[in-house]
Structure formats: structure tokens, C-alpha cells
Write a structure and sequence with these properties.
Blueprint lengths: L1 E6 L4 H13 L3 E4 L11 H13 L4 E6 L3 H7 L7 E3 L3 H9 L5 E5 L5 H13 L6 H7 L6
Parallel strand pairs: 1-2, 1-3, 3-5, 4-5
């Protein structure tokens, strides 16, 4: 499975650890984020990450910025993206189970590295429940 990852300067340290974790688990990682702590504009990393998921080059995405808000807002501009901003395990699980989230948004300045790694693991291993949730997810995207 291929995972796309994107981050701004606030998420660089976490991104390195998440990439390491993913590669150790055998995932292929497409890195669209910055590798420095120099200030940068999060949309420049998030749009390519969302594009990779939307186009099918990656099955899932992980995005990080300071609060997670800007990253999530940017990713969700893409019709094929369901990015969920999560700061605890319950939100991660529900985002996958009920909303079939395909991009996990992590607020790097508000969670620990260990929490972030746990969120990624849970995100990758939680299945979508389908059923009534499938009907609702089908209604998320705006029709053209």
C-alpha cells in the first residue's frame, strides 16, 4: 500500500518519525512535505498529497500542520478527499469507521509524537463499517 504524506514546518519532526514507522511496516511513502523547519505555506505540501490520494497514486494520506486546521481545510477542497482532523484515538477510529476518511490530519502542536504514531497505526488498521455510513459518505462530495 502507498501512503502520501504532507506537512508544513510545524510537522517536520513528526513526519520523519511517521515515514520511518510506515516504511518499517512495509508501506511505500510518497513524501510531499517539507524536510526542514523553515517556515513554508502548508497548501504547497497538502495539495500534492491530496492529489496523490484523489488520483489513486496513494491509497491513503497523512497530513500535518500546527493546528491541523489549515491542512484539513486545504485537503478537503479536493472532491475525492475525506480528511479528518483527529487529536485522540476515538476520533481516528470514528473517522475511518463512519466516514471512510482517506486522509488523517494530525495537529502536530497539540499531540505528542507517540500519540501521532498511534493515530497513524489506528488509521491504517481500522476498517470502514459501510452500511448506513456508506450511504452518508456517498453524499459528501459536491456534484458538478
Amino acid at each position: 500500500m502507498t501512503i502520501a504524506i504532507g506537512n508544513d514546518h510545524a510537522g517536520t519532526e513528526y513526519k520523519f518519525e511517521i515515514v520511518k514507522y510506515l516504511e518499517e511496516k512495509g508501506y511505500t511513502v510518497l513524501n510531499f512535505g517539507t524536510d526542514t523547519n523553515d517556515s513554508m505555506d502548508y497548501p504547497d505540501a497538502i495539495h500534492p498529497t491530496a492529489d496523490a490520494v484523489e488520483s489513486g497514486k496513494a491509497e491513503l494520506g497523512v497530513i500535518l500542520c500546527g493546528s491541523g486546521n489549515g491542512a484539513q481545510m486545504t485537503a478537503n477542497k479536493h472532491q475525492g478527499i475525506r480528511a479528518a482532523l483527529c487529536w485522540n484515538k476515538e476520533l481516528v477510529a470514528l473517522a475511518k469507521q463512519h466516514n471512510n476518511a482517506n486522509v488523517l490530519t494530525i495537529p502536530a502542536r497539540f499531540v505528542s509524537l507517540q500519540q501521532a504514531l498511534g493515530f497513524v497505526e489506528l488509521f491504517l488498521n481500522t476498517p470502514f463499517e459501510g452500511g448506513r455510513h456508506g450511504r452518508r459518505v456517498e453524499k459528501i462530495a459536491c456534484s458538478a
